């Protein structure tokens, strides 16, 4: 019986410590002010016909970087349309780049723009099969050579 009681007390005290930690973090975020915003993209180019996530982070006065969403920011672009943080470019989009602009909802001084290029090549590259990869590992000297498309090729 004593072990059960001790276990219950230990379990209850650990839960209250976690709750205190979470509320302390929320208080720090509330007291910190947003200093700047920045793009941190996951890719170097956008694809047509898919949702391209545009990652924007905020730098706070306490030194932390936190992600911002469409709840915090207004997104605009000279091509395509936004759904939340995701930019959707039509498959028939003709440009080779777009300019994305984000502005903070309550502080228009926090605005950033970025030119992002559109992927021009298709995704029709043939990937190697499992057997082809295993053959290359087993026979490293018999790798097929790629054609040189350099200066003279």
Give an overview in words:
This protein is α+β, with helices and mostly antiparallel strands and 153 residues long. It is built from 2 helices and 10 strands. The strands form 3 sheets. It has a 4-stranded mixed β-sheet, with no helix packed on it. It has a 3-stranded antiparallel β-sheet with strand order 1-4-5, with no helix packed on it. The chain has a 3-stranded antiparallel β-sheet with strand order 3-8-7, with no helix packed on it. It is flat and about 60 Å long. The termini are far apart. About 7% of the residues have low confidence.
Gap from first CA to last CA: 83 Å
Count of runs of 4 or more consecutive helical residues: 2
Give the percentage of residues in beta strands: 25-35%
What's the overall average pLDDT, rounded? 83
Low-pLDDT windows of residues: 16-26
Largest sheet: 4 strands, mixed
Oligomer: single chain
**Global morphology:** flat
Sum up the structure in keywords.
153 residues; alpha+beta; four-stranded mixed beta sheet; three-stranded antiparallel beta sheet; 2 helices; 25% helix; 31% strand
Short description:
With 153 residues, the chain is of the alpha+beta class. The protein has helices at residues 2-31, 130-138; strands at 34-39, 45-46, 51-53, 56-60, 65-68, 73-77, 81-83, 86-88, 97-104, 111-118.
What is the topology?
Blueprint: H1 2-31, E1 34-39, E2 45-46, E3 51-53, E4 56-60, E5 65-68, E6 73-77, E7 81-83, E8 86-88, E9 97-104, E10 111-118, H2 130-138
Parallel strand pairs: 2-10
Antiparallel strand pairs: 1-4, 3-8, 4-5, 6-9, 7-8, 9-10
